[in-house]
Design a protein that fits this description.
13% strand; four-stranded mixed beta sheet; four-stranded antiparallel beta sheet; RNA-binding; 27 helices; single chain; alpha/beta
Length: 891
RNA sequence: GGACUAUUAGCUCAGUUGGUUAGAGCGUUCGAUUCACAUUCGAAAGGUCACUGGUUCGAGUCCAGUAUAGUCCACCA
């Protein structure tokens, strides 16, 4: 049979697309098609990338995590499902398209194109972008089930959104309310508290009085809003001002009407901060609005409009002015009238819209909200409580229905956020999104309907109009884990795959997304959305800066794939990062992993070219030499560790142990021995095949490519190797003496001083045959060498290492060689260390003995404490004995 | 103001119930290399694990505090 020849170096670009196609055509990404009796289900909902652009490194990281996990689970024999999808990303997408249109010279796309026209443009953009990003996900090798492809804005998902809206509406959780909300003038839409990005700015704080005879001074950073003040709040315990509570003052500051300022008491006002009094502007501050709700009689005056300009209420002199102009004018007025007492520069932070970038205005408006505190009749508690419960005691108190957050510190972050959570504003004034399924009739009645209703259920009127607003994009994303599985119908998928098994996301969307998924799922399905949430950090560039378009420091994953291959990219993203921590990422990292991928290729190339046929080796071949025994035990140990790490989602550590074995133990060490000892094809093939399996989740392409040389099916659906019991007697450190001898010999060989083949074998065979035991420790090797040479080992004699060197040299035919034994036989130091440790533990044991012989202690201390002391003593003595025995072998 | 994270080799980072001599990759230096692989191999140098205390027989690891950097939240009258 012809030997198998591989190309000299692995060329990813030649294989990858072909292999992905093979996988996709096999239909095996779909768990329904997986062969074998797979009882256990494993599912992941892919965090849907926004249809706003192309794949970036963050996506690449997520795909690497997701696919590694799902491939591993599939190989474990589970019905593994990874549902792919995309997110319509309401605001983000519309902002993007509007921005593009403006760049092309359209001044106001909404006006010029109208709702339908603009939506068509956005749809076109989204579809394009969607197909780009889905193809890029294929490039990443992601083994998701394309037959279940979902989109947050497609029919089934819209149905889910409408249905959950109905449920919440009927439960009274969704309500329409007049509130102060965050308004982006640029985007002409509201945004939720979480969508704000706070930036520091330098600004002035002005201390002033409304009029010369007004008794209390107040301070503000927003003078222009003071035209809408209706009250001054002071602490009711403030002796300076409490006498004014309830009094009304009329002041004329130039607004349309003179202001009536009521003095109200409020516990939250800090007596010692500033002037100890707060000017209350109910229309333009959330906190002031809350005060207004408690004291409705003070009234509310809106002086800033949706266009970001002063309203008529602000007065003739101000109407139509921008914020800054109005501010200057008002400050000038204060100065002119001698009302301004102080002007200081401070740094404060202002909320900006994360999508449109402008500073948001607080405006009062009629909007849709989700009430997070209301008791839900069917659940007996509030959404807040549901959200809290799912990560603490478990949903419904069932500790099996618990969302485990990894790393767990994010649990606190999440819980803290819930504590501060206010009602969630879900309506947006943009057009790209799920339109709110509420219809208004001329008669004033409004009602829910999932489709266009015929008539008003109250008055039978036919003139109906749907609410023009759309839903916050996170409203639909929140349903993702179950809307992708067929909810609201009781589909088979839903029964089998929900709750999903695993979820991963960056910490920056913890609140946006994880919280909303938990909310939606616990509410609508009475279950958690996923069992485990793995939180990863964000990738930064070499200098620790975030990757961003504006900085131009982005690395294009597709470019990296073309240059280094997908496997290398995937490995480099997962390597050397700990869960939840940010990681720096740069091209040299990929170079390193590319080298490793190539190593994998060359190992295979070497083995395959030397074997006659590449059958699958089903069971562990018999070992003939010590080196065989060692490498196989190393393999088993490595599989064990990698499995453990993968079960804990410790991808980086799994890669580390696998790399160490593959490169150091197998390629650099065992393959070299194999060249000398010969006749190892079975073992080589066996190890190679196992390597392909364990590397497959990380490097799916190259492993599948190599696997195709065996007479077998697809690697993707092979079973994960189970390790045979590891022989603890042969651990790596015990082998290092032999390793060192061999490397010394290899050096000699390279200097052409010896022809080593027979001699290395001699060491191994001698160890095995003459003793008929496996070497247990360095010491044993030394002793063994000593016996062969009839040497007496004198641990105390400084000459000993030298003698051992000579002995080893004799074993291999009396050739004089240098053996690097330092670090291995520093027995004196070892003995000294042991003696010291024994002394310490003796002292420790004596201490406990003394305590135990103290009658008072034994009589008075609780039994548990006494027992614990006894146990400690027993442990100490046990250890002492072990150490003494160890020391004895030295003498 | 409240938290969280990080601080380990020149650089980037691992180090998960406390346990022998703290690791990796890159970089540096020296050497090797027709025989799977220069996308290679061997070796070396390089560490007061930020600092100060504490707990422990034993601390990079646990506790308290300090410093520096970063992130989040709240407040911003």
């Amino acid at each position: 049979m012809a030997k198998i020849e591989l190309e000299k170096a692995y060329e990813a670009s030649k294989s990858e697309d072909k292999i992905y196609q093979k996988w996709e055509e096999s239909g095996l990404f779909n768990p329904d098609n997986l062969p074998g009796d797979r009882q256990e289900y494993f599912s992941i909902a892919m965090p849907p990338p926004n249809v706003t652009g192309i794949l970036h490194l963050g996506h690449a990281l997520e795909n690497s995590l997701l696919d590694t996990q799902i491939r591993y689970q599939r190989m474990l024999g589970k019905r593994a499902l990874l549902v792919p999808g995309t997110d319509h990303a309401a605001v983000a997408t519309q902002a993007r398209v509007e921005g593009d249109l403006k760049k092309q010279g359209m001044a106001n796309p909404r006006q010029e194109l109208g709702r339908e026209g603009l939506l068509a443009k956005i749809r076109e953009y989204a579809e394009n972008s969607k197909s780009t990003i889905l193809n890029q996900i294929r490039k990443m090798g992601t083994s998701c089930d394309w037959s279940r492809l979902a989109y947050t804005f497609d029919e089934p998902r819209s149905e889910a959104v409408n249905e959950i809206f109905r449920l919440m509406y009927e439960d009274g959780l969704i309500y329409r309310g007049y509130r102060v909300i965050n308004w982006s003038v640029k985007g002409q839409s509201t945004c939720s508290d979480d969508e704000l990005e706070y930036v520091d700015q330098k600004t002035k704080v002005y201390t002033f009085k409304y009029s010369a005879d007004f008794p209390i001074s107040i301070a503000t950073t927003r003078p222009e809003t003071k035209l809408g003040d209706t009250a001054v709040a002071i602490n009711p315990n403030d002796e300076r001002y409490q006498k004014y509570i309830g009094q009304k003052f009329t002041v004329d500051v130039g607004a349309k009407n003179p202001l009536t300022i009521t003095i109200i008491g409020d516990e939250n006002v800090d007596i010692n901060y500033g002037t100890g009094a707060v000017g209350v502007t109910p229309a333009h501050s959330q906190i002031d609005f809350e005060m207004y709700q408690k004291n409705k009689e003070i009234g509310l005056i809106q002086v800033i409009g949706r266009d970001g300009k002063m309203t008529e209420e602000a007065g003739k002199e101000y109407v139509g002015l921008g914020i800054n102009e109005a501010r200057e004018k008002f400050v000038a007025y204060l100065q002119a009238n001698n009302l301004l007492e102080k002007e200081e520069e401070i740094t404060n932070s202002v909320g900006t819209s994360d999508r449109f970038g402008d500073i948001v205005e607080a405006l009062p408006m009629e909007q849709w909200f989700i009430d997070v505190n209301k008791q839900i009749a069917s659940r007996g508690r509030s959404l807040k409580e549901l959200m809290r419960e799912a990560v603490t005691v478990g949903h419904n108190g069932d500790n099996k229905k618990i969302v485990k957050i990894e790393p767990d510190r994010f649990q606190n972050v999440y819980l803290k956020w819930i504590d501060n959570l206010r009602d969630w504003n879900i309506s947006r004034q943009i057009w790209w999104g799920h339109q709110i399924p509420i219809w208004y009739c001329d008669c004033g009645h409004y009602f829910y309907s999932s489709n266009t209703p015929d008539s008003c259920p109250k008055c039978n009127g036919k003139n109906l109009k749907q609410d023009e607003d759309t839903l916050d994009t996170w409203f639909s994303s929140g349903t993702w884990t179950f809307s992708t599985l067929g909810w609201p119908s009781e589909s088979n998928d839903l029964l089998k795959f929900h709750p999903t098994s695993w979820m991963q996301m960056g910490y920056e969307i913890l609140f946006f997304w994880m919280a909303r998924m938990i909310l939606m799922s616990t509410y609508a399905l009475d279950d958690i959305p996923f069992k485990e949430a793995y939180i990863h950090g964000i990738l930064r560039d070499k200098n620790g800066k975030k990757f961003s378009k504006s900085l131009g420091n982005g690395l294009d994953p597709i470019e990296m794939i073309n240059k280094y291959g997908t496997d290398a990219l995937r490995l480099s993203l997962l390597k050397g990062t700990a869960p939840g921590n940010d990681a720096r990422f740069y091209e040299e990292k990929i170079e390193g992993t590319r080298n490793f991928v190539n190593k994998l290729w060359n190992i295979s190339r070497y083995i395959l070219q030397s074997v006659e046929s590449a059958e699958i080796i089903k069971s562990e071949p018999e070992s003939k030499t010590l080196s065989d025994q060692w490498i196989l035990s190393q393999l088993n140990k490595t599989i064990d560790q990698a499995t453990k790490y993968l079960n804990e989602s410790q991808f980086s550590l799994a890669i580390e142990v696998l790399t160490d074995f593959t490169w150091n133990d197998f390629a650099d060490w065992y393959l070299e021995i194999a060249k000398i000892e010969g006749d190892k094809n079975q073992i080589l093939l066996y190890i190679l095949q196992n390597l392909m399996k364990v590397w497959h989740p990380f490097c799916p392409f190259i492993t599948e490519e190599i696997w195709s040389n065996f007479n077998a099916g697809m690697l993707m659906i092979e079973n994960w190797p189970t390790s045979k019991e590891v022989d603890d007697k042969l651990v790596q450190s015990d082998f290092s003496l032999i390793k060192n001898i061999v490397s010394a010999i290899r050096n000699l060989r390279s200097e052409n001083k010896i022809e080593p083949a027979k001699r290395i074998s001699a060491i191994f065979l001698a160890n095995n045959e003459e003793n008929k035991v496996i070497i247990e420790s360095q010491r044993e090797i030394i002793e063994h060498l000593a016996r062969l040479n009839e040497l007496t080992i004198d641990q105390q004699n400084p000459e000993t290492p030298k003698k051992i060197e000579n002995a080893a040299a004799n074993v291999i035919d009396g050739i004089e060689i240098y053996l690097p034994l330092e670090g291995l036989v520093d027995l004196k130091a070892e003995a000294k260390r042991l003696t010291k440790e024994i002394e310490e533990i003796e002292k420790y044991c004596k201490g406990i003995e003394a305590k135990l012989s103290n009658q008072e202690f034994v009589a008075n201390a609780p039994a548990a404490v006494v027992n614990k002391e006894k146990q400690k003593l027993a442990e100490g003595q046990e250890k002492l004995e072990k150490l003494r025995n160890q020391l004895a072998t030295f003498n």
